[in-house]
Specification:
By secondary structure, the protein is an alpha+beta fold. The protein has helices at 2-20, 30-39, 45-48, 80-95, 109-119, 176-191, and strands at 42-44, 53-54, 77-79, 98-104, 141-148, 194-197, 200-206. The strands form 2 sheets. It has a 5-stranded mixed beta sheet, covered by helices on one side. Strands 1-3 form a two-stranded antiparallel ribbon. Helix 4 (80-95) packs across helix 6.
């Protein structure tokens, strides 16, 4: 009887552990992962801002690597203070009939290394060895675009992580519709304390963390494996 009970408990523990941690394209126990993330200071954006649109591109093949780098049900995570800024921006946009769609938020540093190795020569991804960690890895940056009230993406200067030469937030689009859409998004984000990155119109940094070292949260510490 004791042996049977011991084996049953061991099997349950194994299932619990394997269910919590998952690699790219797999499934995680989201409740456990978000609880572990919360202990590290990261908050689930979807839970905090009901109805916000989220399309984490690194959980899909629609990114520069052509394969998923996150689990399929990866939570969208930010630091609590950064999340409060996003709430302000989302409310301002909603009042105008628009909203934010998030393409990336907290990014495991393990994924950052993969992105650098894949596309490092473009200069799009910060190499931690030479430039320090991306603010994404601390949950104080996000990549986002503008959507209408139905969640349809508005026309913007470029697609996500594409056409880097034309992706600068300080460039003035020739198309007046694109120019207006960009202005609407950037005005709301700036007013909330989320500063556009000059090289990428879709990237926004919490102004309180631009001059400070990033407190990195590893994926493995909250049950997310990268390989």
């Amino acid at each position: 009887m004791f042996i049977r009970i011991f084996l049953s408990l061991s099997a349950a523990a194994t299932l619990l552990l394997t269910g919590c941690a998952a690699g790219p394209g797999g499934w995680i126990d989201k409740k456990q992962v978000t609880a572990a993330a919360r202990a590290k200071g990261l908050v689930d954006v979807r839970a905090a801002i009901p109805g916000i649109r989220v399309d984490l591109r690194y959980a899909t093949r629609h990114n520069v690597t052509g394969r998923p780098l996150y689990p399929r049900n990866m939570p969208c995570l930010l630091r609590a203070a950064t999340l409060e800024r996003l709430k302000v921006a989302q409310a301002a946009l909603k009042a105008q009939g628009y909203g934010v769609k998030i393409w990336d938020a907290w990014r495991p540093p393990e994924v950052q290394r993969l992105l650098v190795s894949k596309d490092g020569e473009s200069g799009m991804f910060m190499d931690p060895e030479t430039s320090g960690w991306s603010r994404h890895c601390g949950g104080v940056s996000l990549d986002a675009t503008l959507v209408d009230a139905s969640g349809h993406e508005m026309r913007m200067p470029t697609a996500f992580d594409e056409n880097f030469a034309q992706a600068g937030s300080d460039q003035i689009p020739a198309d007046p519709v694109v120019r207006q859409n960009l202005q609407i998004l950037h005005s709301a984000m700036r007013a909330a304390g989320l500063k556009p990155l000059p090289a990428e119109w879709w990237h926004f940094d919490d102004i309180d963390h631009i001059s400070h070292p990033v407190l990195v949260v590893k994926g493995e510490d909250i049950g997310i494996l990268v390989r």
